[in-house]
Structures are given as C-alpha cells and as structure tokens.
Amino acid sequence: MAGNPRNGRPYRRLAADLRRRGEPCWLCGHDIDPTLDPRDPWSWTMDHVQPVSRRPDLLLDPANARPAHRRCNSSKGDRVTPRAVGPTSRRW
Predict the structure, then answer these.
(1) Environment class of 86 (CB within 10 Å of its CB; exposed 0-12, middle 13-18, buried 19+)
(2) Buried b vs exposed e over 27-45: b needs ≥16 C-beta within 10 Å?
(3) Mean pLDDT of the region 78-82
(4) What is the average per-residue pLDDT within 48-67?
(5) 23 Cβ partners below 8 Å, 6+ apart?
(6) Strands 65-69 and 44-48, sheet pairing
(7) What's this model's pTM, rounded to 2 decimal places?
(8) For residues 81, 62, 56 and 70, what is the CA-based torsion angle, rounded to 10 degrees?
(9) In this structure, what DSSP letter does residue 78 have?
(10) Side-chain half-sphere exposure of 17, counting CA atoms within 13 A
(11) In terms of C-beta distances under 8 Å and separation of at least 24 residues, what long-range contacts does 13-22 make, across chains too?
(12) Terminal CA-to-CA distance of the chain, rounded, Å?
C-alpha cells in the first residue's frame, strides 16, 4: 500500500523550493510571515491552482503550486479559482 504522497520527499522538496522564494499569498496578495507556527491561520501553506482532489496528477507540478496563507487556502477549498470580487458599483 502506498503512503500519502504529500508526506514524500518530492512533495516536501517542492514545498521547500516554493517557500524559499518568499512570494506573497497568491489569493490575497499579502506577505506571509515564515516565522509563524504552522497551525496559525496566517502561516505559510502550499496551495494548488488545480485542486489535488480534482487533478491528483498535478500534485507535484511546480506550475500548479502557489504560496498561500492557511486561512486563504482553507477558504478557497477545492475550487479551481478563488471567488473573485467584482468591480464596485460606484467610485468611492
């Protein structure tokens, strides 16, 4: 029986490479504090543009991996793209 592919060396290497870049959260655009506890809602996680639940073949594809806050990643869920906020109805 195969183990969880998210615990394997290739997955950890992909996450480490992405984290090293220090890019902001792709969902909200804000910086991610690398010193936060991994359980913190604003900590760093690796998100997948195409959710692994729908496209398991893209699990290790670097083009499918993006940095995200834990909270932003959880809010996105298994949707392909985050919910977009449209333009406001008038100029504020």
Answers:
(1) exposed
(2) beeeebeeeeeeeeebbbb
(3) 78
(4) 95
(5) 66, 67
(6) antiparallel
(7) 0.80
(8) -50
(9) T
(10) 11
(11) 14/46, 14/60, 14/62, 14/65, 15/46, 15/65, 17/62, 18/46, 18/62, 18/65, 18/66, 18/67, 19/44, 19/46, 19/67, 21/67
(12) 58
| Average pLDDT in the chain | 89
Between 23-27, 68-72, 86-90, the lowest mean confidence (pLDDT) is in 86-90
Confidence of residue 5 (pLDDT cuts 50, 70, 90): confident
Residue 46 has pLDDT above 60, yes or no: yes
Average pLDDT on 14-29 reads 97
Residue by residue, DSSP assigns 23-69 as: PPPTTT-----TTS-TTSTTSEEEEESS-TTT-GGGTT-GGGEEEEE
